[in-house]
Hints:
- A hairpin with a 2-residue loop joins strand 2 and strand 3.
- Helix content is 17%, strand content 41%.
- It has a single domain, classed as Elongation Factor Tu (Ef-tu), domain 3.
- The protein is an alpha+beta fold.
Amino acid sequence: MKKILLACLIGTSSLxxxxxxxxxxxxxxxxxxxxxxxxxxxxxxxxxxxxxxxxDLNVPELKSYFVDQGIVNIAIxxxxxxxxxxxxxxxxxVAYSYDYTTGSVRIYxxxxxxxxxxxxxxxxxVVIKISLTESDFVQ
Length: 139
């Protein structure tokens, strides 16, 4: 009888202990992001010098908020969106980078060592993905 009573007591205390556990969830606010995709061909690149080309993109979604405190990420695809390469990066001997201001992005294709007499060739077609993400700015 004592064994049955002891087993019931242990079972009841176990149930009460396990039922009192609560699972906690972190309710972080989701930070929204927007993404735009652009396709460009080799003849749309502007030449600054033989080792320096650039491509200007009109991005009306790039408001002053993103310039001041948001996040701007850019990736480029050379294989019709099978893969993307986050820039800045060097691919096939060409260094890709970018800068931006309200409403526009400029992508650079340059000789990585910027040597005189070197001429770079941009791919016949590129796909550019621009992602704008809101962020909580902390000072």
